[in-house]
Every structure is written in structure tokens, then in C-alpha cells.
Amino acid sequence: MPGPRGYDFWQKKLGGARLVVAPMVDASELAWRLLSRRYGAELCYTPMLHAHVFVKDARYRRENLTTCLEDRPLIVQHRCKLWSLKPVVCKFCSNDPDTFVEACRLAAPNCDAVDLNLGCPQAIARRGHYGAFLQDEWSLIRTMIERASAEVDVAITAKIRVFEDKSRTVEYAKMLEHAGASLLTVHGRTRDQKGPLTGLASWPHIKAVKEAVNIPVLANGNIQYREDVERCLEDTGADGVMSAEGNLHNPALFTGVHPPVWQIALEYLQLAIHFPCPSSYARGHIFKLLHHCLCMSENFDLRYRLSKTSTAEEMVAVVEDLRDRMMPYNTGKKPWTPEPGSEQARLPMPPWLCQPYVRIPPEEHLKKIQESQKRSLEKQQEEAVIDKNDGFSGGEPSKRRMLEDSEEADLSKKKKKKILRNPRKSFEPPSDPYEKCVCRNPKGGRCAHGLCRACCRVKCYTEGLDCLGHRILVKTKREKAAVYYGEQEKLKQVEQHGKERKEISIWQSGDKLQSQPDVSKATLTEDHNQQQVCVTSHLPGQSLQQSSKVNREEGAIVKFNELNDIEKNNSEDKSNRCISPCSKMTKGSQENLYSTNLTHNTSEGSCKCKTNSTT
Question: For the domain bounded by 6-257, which CATH number is listed?
């Protein structure tokens, strides 16, 4: 069953949020969202998620979907990893219905809505064919929203920019509503209003959209102070307002206060340490917060230090130094007298308080460009007059001017525009102060052979050399390897010689054993016939004598004293060899064994068997 849509969605899922922080590239990370919520923000966006990458790359989904229990409600656009549950809204850029639907399906279990980005005016959106550059392809947009709202159980919202024609803007908004959008965010600028040509947003366009649709509308543009929030809601009739640049320079905008910049900066950096983010994000936030202070000549050193920082801890040190410098002005111990005509003198508040950054009007920017072009043209005319007076009759241009004209003819239109703005602009590559290797790469400053690292490595390996500067020790390693393998060869030779001597000694001992009598063989084979020896060791002396007599009858040369020695040795080794089998023998079994031996001794054949077992 589909969830709530329209005003039901805005009230139940988003809690009727009226104060919203806009999605900002490299600026809407978790730490900044939490800071904005502390100062009155009711709904936040993250940067945009690319739908195609989101669908294809599981790691991208895992790493770019981060929030916490305090970060709610949230509209996710980019770089967010979900920890909390709801409410969350995912925002995608896409120009393919299948990809967009699949991205919505993957994000639906972890969010409350999906927002389609139709408002990005940047060059990357033009190249990728998404954002505000889709606003002329209504059928594609309609298909994407219709399919997503029908095939995925999640609310679909959209953020758009206006057309110059108000009626076309209203038709555009109605098309999105009929396609299935549950909420619209209307930025009151066209896609061409960006950078120095930003200008003011058109609230009448937003008002016309609000009056024409029956879904919640958020107004975006011209929100710099708390008073702007109230005026926008009153003039447009929108259900809420969204702020981007105003929030970047004063996160406490929605509360109507202007705290010292170091207070907000230190609070943000503590959150950035607790919730890590790329250092470029944090550094960008600190530059915007401290912008007006860092433009003061006395703080140029801090601006340079901040540009070299790479960790939040280093940024904390810079902010604390700025606080120590500006605190006397804030407390009144030191009078504040800005330089006449400086940027600080034109500010409505002291530079150490959070306040918006106001761009110059587009008209003034265009006027500056025209003045720059006019100065460039006048300079060219003066050079032409000088060349003419140098003796070139008939108005023939000088060689230097011809050379410059030929060089400019090879430049692109973009470079020619830069030259018009700044005639001293040069596009020649800067001189290289480094000495070159034979391959035209810079030489190593400490290379023993005066080469780059790649060429030095080849030379060392081919010629067996060392280079301490590049830490390439081919010669040293080869010498050590030669010594090592030489020692290993010697050890092998010694081991082989020892094996040969051992084989010779075993062969000699075998010859001696063959020359000894049978009794010696019996003694040597005693370990292999442990059970027979154990039995023999328990026989009395009489049985041994009888077996000795039998052996003499057979021609064996066994002396009685040698048999006694065997009996003595067997009795001494009894504890080591025969304890376990003999301890298990009962007295009756030993008597039976003794009587059996006597019975066998009566016959010649049995005596032979007994003699063999005894030996």
C-alpha cells in the first residue's frame, strides 16, 4: 500500500518542516547538518547522489549513505551513510528512467522519500545532461517521476529552477505535480543566473507556482537574514523556505542571532572531529565563516596558515589564534576603526560577527568587464601610435605587433577574453628552474649519476651501481647476495662430506660385525628381539646351562661365562626394557613358562628352537 503523499507526506514524514538547509556541494556533510540543526534548521539536505553510480557500486552506496539519530528529518543527496532510521529523503541526479527507478528501489528501505535534482546549473550538470539542463525535456522527466512513484513505494519530490516566462514555469510545476511529485522546491532563479551573474531570485515566480499547485512548496533564494524568512513566507505564501549561502556564512540564520565567527567555527570543528569528513570540506567551511576577518591585512598570515592545514586540529589552532587577536575588539577593550574604503568598512556589522556574503550586482560586474575591455583597447591604440611614430610609414604595423597578432590568432576564444580583461595576461608556460635528465624529466637533486629516478634505476641495474640519493643499492645487494650464497655452498659441502664419512663408518662397522661370533650378533640384535630377550632373562641358570650344552652338541661355540654375562646384563636392563610386560606376568604364568622350557629341552629339535630364541 503506497505511503502518504502531498501534504500528508509533508506533515507526517517531514514533520511540517519550514526552515530548510539547501543541498550544497562539498558542504552538506553530517557535521554541518548537525550544527545547522542546533541553530534552528528543521530539515537538511545532503549533496546529490549520482543515480548511475549508486546503482552500480555497492561500496558507493555503503560509504555515501551517514547520519545519526539527531540528523532527522533529512533529505539525502550525496555522501551519506545511514545509521538512523527515519525520516530520510534521498536525492538523485539522473537522466534515465530505468536507472532512477532502480536507485529509488535500493534507497527506499533506508529513506522516506527520493528527490529528483532538476535545479543544478553547474557546468558538470551540463556535461552530464542532468539537473537544470533537463527542464526542457518534459516527457523524460514525467516518465522518470511516474515510473518511480508507481513502481517503488516511496514519495518522490523535486527541486527546480524557474523559466524567465512565469506561465511556462507554472506549467512546468503542474506537470511535475500530475506526474506524481509529493513536494516541490522552487529556486527563483534561472539556470543562467550563477556565479557573478547570480542576481536576485524572483519571488513572484514562486508565488505563481504556489497558487497553481496543490502540493507543498518550499521557496529558495534571497534568504540572508531571519527577516528574509518572514518576508518570503508572506510574499510567496510558500510552506517553507530554504537557505544555502546564507547558511554557509551564518548557520544561526534561522535563530536571528549573529554569534562571533570563532564560536561557530570551533563548534563545527568539534563536530567534524567527532564525525570525520574530508579536510577540504572543513577547510571550506572555515574560510567562509572567517571570510571577512581573513580579508584584513593584519590576518593575512592566518589566512596562509589556514590554506596549509590538513586536519581539524590544525584548523582549531588557527581559529583560536584569530579569536585571541579579535577578542579585544569584541569586548570593547580596543576600538574598532576600519580603513576607509575597505571591504570591512562597507559591512553592516563588525567583521568578526557571522553575517552573509553579498555579491556585487550583475550589472556592476558587467560594467567592470566593459571598463576592462575599454582599457585594453585604449592600450592597443596607444601601442599602435607608438609603433607608427617609430618610423613605420603608411601605418604598417611593427614586427612586435605582428608577432603579438599572430600569437593571439592561435589562442582560443576563452583565452582572448582573458586577455581583454587583463592585457598583461600571459599563457606561456612558466620557466622551469630544474635541470633536465636525458628523458626531459627533472634530475634528482642528490642523484650520484645526475639522472631522474627512472633512468637512475635502469643504469644501476644494468651496470651494477649504487645511488644513495635515490636509495637504489643494486651493487651492495648483489655483493651481499654473493657472500650469502657462498656461505650456503660451503655449508652444503661440509654437510655432504659429513654424510660420506658417516656412510664409511657404517660400512666399516658392518664388516666388524660380520667377523664377530654368533654371541656378539645376538647381543647387537637384542633390541629387535625385546620380547624374546625378556623371556630369556627370566630363565634360571640351569636352563641356560642346558641350552649351552645343546649348542655344544650342535657345534656352537658359546661359553658358560658369556651366557652368565648375558644373564647379568638382561637382569640389569630389566627395569628399562621389561618392566611393563614382566609386571603383567603372574607367578603361575612364569612357572608354566619354566616347565614348558624344560619339556622342550628334552628333544633335540626343541633345544635348537630354544637356543635360537636365547641368542
Answer: 3.20.20.70
